[in-house]
Design brief:
401 residues; alpha+beta; Arc Repressor Mutant, subunit A; Nucleotidyltransferase, domain 5; 3 domains; five-stranded mixed β-sheet; 18 strands; disordered C terminus
């Protein structure tokens, strides 16, 4: 099969390749870029000069010479552009502003009031987003490109291409043209994705693309997985990939909100902890208005409440079972765990690792298992915006076969 790329698309590919290399390296030179990418020196010089004019790259002096002329050192101007990243969970929301490298320059957490009535909850969510965006924009320094867009991470099944929400399970919202409604309130371009995909993209980007295959589990009230396969987010045919929270781990198990029985998230998510506590004879946790469920549970466990510690251990065991199934099927380079449950790493990780040792096969037993970056979903949402704007590659329409 012959693949044809027109000249304009090839220029965009080369430009994006050079710009990504500059972003991932603190300093480099034109000659180093040519050697790493395989592009000829004239092409590299043309692209770099163009990026300097666009204020995305800057010259910072001379490097050491091994015999010839000293190379001119260049670096990516991370503060040339900014993006807003928003992570929306059921009862709270995190808003950040990052520069083009993903460094956070602003962060704010805010509670969201839960409303049983769908229309009221949706209107409240949209109002809160608008308010937080208005506040966040005030923190953005002057720059050549300003705010390039807003990325929103949502805890459910969403279509990245269209901005359509198929289902937000824990608030029972379905078939919502979210992008249409939010763009009526906000003039800045908005991009949406699943929170697990955003978290995965954060973890992948933070490793400067050193890994090709990474699985990110976002474990909170529910469980979602972001899949980086061969260096790209894998969303599946309809954008539904990664719903491992509804993988069956107990054939005759508890009924899930999705209608299935024995789903992974019924045994390894935040809400399962309350059940484990009550099954062990503990009282239902009483949550203060200014704290979250995980705050309360961690406080009790850290103060040697054995019922709460056992609850975290049980969750870790089930989390290990689910992760073993995932890594046996996909054999990734690394698994990262984010979301509220990741804050209990001290209690859950030893159990996860123990179960993986028994249930994973061959090299999967030694899978690199780590806790994700704080605010990974919000950072990833911001980075997705940057990648869709500053680092945009040609679309499929530019490439013919």
């Amino acid at each position: 099969m012959n693949i044809n790329v027109d000249a304009a698309a090839m220029r965009r590919i080369n430009r994006s390749t050079v710009l990504q290399l500059l972003r991932d390296n603190r300093t480099t030179s034109r000659i180093d870029i040519a050697q790493i990418t395989g592009l000829n020196k004239a092409t590299v010089s043309y692209i770099v000069d163009e990026l300097i004019k666009e204020q995305l790259v800057e010259e910072i002096g001379y490097g050491s010479s091994s015999g010839g002329r000293k190379p001119v050192l260049i670096k990516f101007n991370a503060n040339a552009a900014y993006a807003i990243g928003i992570d929306i969970q059921i009862s709270q929301m995190t808003t950040i502003v990052t520069n083009a490298r993903g460094d956070i320059i602003y962060k704010r957490n805010r509670r969201i009031r839960f409303h049983e009535e769908e229309t009221t909850y949706k209107a409240h969510m949209l109002d809160v987003i608008q308010s937080e965006v208005d506040t966040a924009t005030l923190s953005v320094p002057k720059s050549p490109y300003g705010i390039t867009g807003i990325g929103i991470a949502l805890p459910g099944i969403v279509n990245f291409k269209t901005g359509y929400v198929h289902y937000l399970p824990n608030v029972q919202i379905a078939n919502w043209d979210f992008l249409y409604d939010i763009q009526k309130k906000i003039s800045i371009p908005v991009y949406i994705d699943n929170d697990a995909n955003c978290g995965a993209w954060c973890e992948f980007s933070r490793r400067n693309n050193r890994l090709k295959n990474l699985i990110h589990l976002h474990v909170g009230i529910g469980i979602g997985a972001g899949l980086i396969l061969d260096g790209q987010i894998y969303r599946g045919k309809d954008g539904l990939a990664g719903e491992f929270g509804h993988m069956t781990i107990s054939a005759m198990g508890l009924e899930c909100a999705c209608g299935n029985y024995g789903c992974f998230e019924e045994y390894a998510s935040e809400r399962s902890l309350v059940r484990y506590i009550r099954e062990s004879g503990g009282e239902k946790p009483m949550i203060a208005d200014d704290s979250t469920l995980i705050d309360h549970l961690l406080y009790e466990a850290q103060h040697d409440n054995r019922v709460y510690i056992r609850a975290f251990h049980t969750l870790g065991q089930y989390l290990g079972i689910g992760i073993a199934n995932i890594v046996n099927g996909l054999n990734p380079d690394q698994v990262t765990i984010g979301g509220a449950i990741s804050r209990a790493a001290t209690f859950i990780l030893p159990e996860v690792e123990r179960v993986l040792h028994h249930r994973a096969i061959l090299a999967n037993k030694a899978i690199d298992l780590t806790i994700a970056t704080n605010d990974a979903a919000a950072i990833g949402a911001s980075l997705l915006v940057i990648d869709r704007t500053l680092f945009a590659m040609p679309t499929d329409a530019d490439i013919t076969t």
